[in-house]
Amino acid sequence: MKTLVLRDNSEDIAKAADILKKGGLVAFPTETVYGLGADALNPSAVAAVYAAKGRPSDNPMIVHIADSEALSDLTADMTEDMKKLIGAFWPGPMTMIVRRKPAVPDVTTGGLDTVGVRLPSNETARQLIRTAGCPVAAPSANLSGRPSPTEPGHVIADLDGRIDAVIVSGRCDVGIESTVVDVTGENPEILRPGIITAEDMEQVLGKAVKLDPSLLTNPKAGLRPKAPGMKYKHYAPKAEMEIFEGTPKAVREAIEEERRRLESEGRKVAVMIFEEGGEKSAAHDLFAFLRRADEEGADDILVSALPEKGVGFSVMNRMLKSAGYNVRRI
Ligand code: TXA
Ligand code: MG
What we know:
There is one protein chain. By secondary structure, this protein is an alpha/beta fold. It has helices spanning 10-21, 43-53, 80-89, 106-109, 123-132, 152-159, 198-205, 248-264, 279-295, 311-322; strands at residues 4-7, 26-28, 35-39, 62-64, 94-99, 114-118, 136-137, 165-168, 179-182, 189-192, 210-211, 240-245, 269-272, 300-304, 327-329. It has an eleven-stranded mixed sheet, sandwiched between helices. Strands 13-14-12-15 form a four-stranded parallel sheet, sandwiched between helices. The longest helix is centred in the C-terminal third of the chain and has 17 residues, at 248-264. The termini are far apart. The site of magnesium ion has 3 residues, from loops.
């Protein structure tokens, strides 16, 4: 299949919308990462997304809408908590897990009786969804297991020849995927942390927001994550990756020493050190850094840890998976 490269203008977005309507696959920008879209209500189109990504079929898709009214086509739920979260965080990088209506096909939800819904703030994404006239199922537009794509070149590197089209736009603002929050229970529960944090939601709701306990442990402890996608090996670069944790000075020195040791053995080393207070820019840069390290043929990646609170917790969630939980405490 030849992948059509489209530009970020109305004419090309209309072409992309046409492809979606006909059951095709289109990669498009969102504020978090690039998504690989298909008509969420067309089972064969959604099945093609799993095939293009090499994604396990029990891993459900997030369904993207352009206006909050479209939520009622997908779910009958509308609690006070949902209203408050929508008011505060939509359009934006928050996915709500709600009970699905029968119109949402099994293949879209991986057979679950819930569905994840998100209203992105990226204007290109919204124009595409609105023009297509259907809700758009979209996982991140990478091959399964690779770091999520934050630049159009990442999408093309992974999916060229496997999808119908890609809309080429700029770099994604946020850089890590949306916060996934399950709102089907008495207290909301975060299944995947993102740039919108539990603390942000607690402020808006005036009540406790839980964290899926599996987020607080090493997967070797055996807790099963509630978001099926969180159990897979993910974001993994080809290089060996190690995270260094400790005071900024000690970490810097330890990374420098380890770099020298590895280089003296003839290995190629990529280093990323985050500044204090740099959690958002860490989120923005992390996946692009991992991909660049691979492209440059790095054998080893050495990175500094972030304090695991607020956005730092969310970025560390991705980094720990990338590194296979390989952490050195200084
Ligand atoms: O920022 C994002 O969310 C991006 C952009 C494209 O919108 N999308 C994205 O999709 O990251 P994906 O498929 O790569 O990740 C979706 C995550 C997976 O961990 C999946 O298991 C979880 O959300 N998920 C989706 N529907 C769910 C449901 N009904 N119940 C529990 N987890 C769900
Ligand atoms: Mg993904």
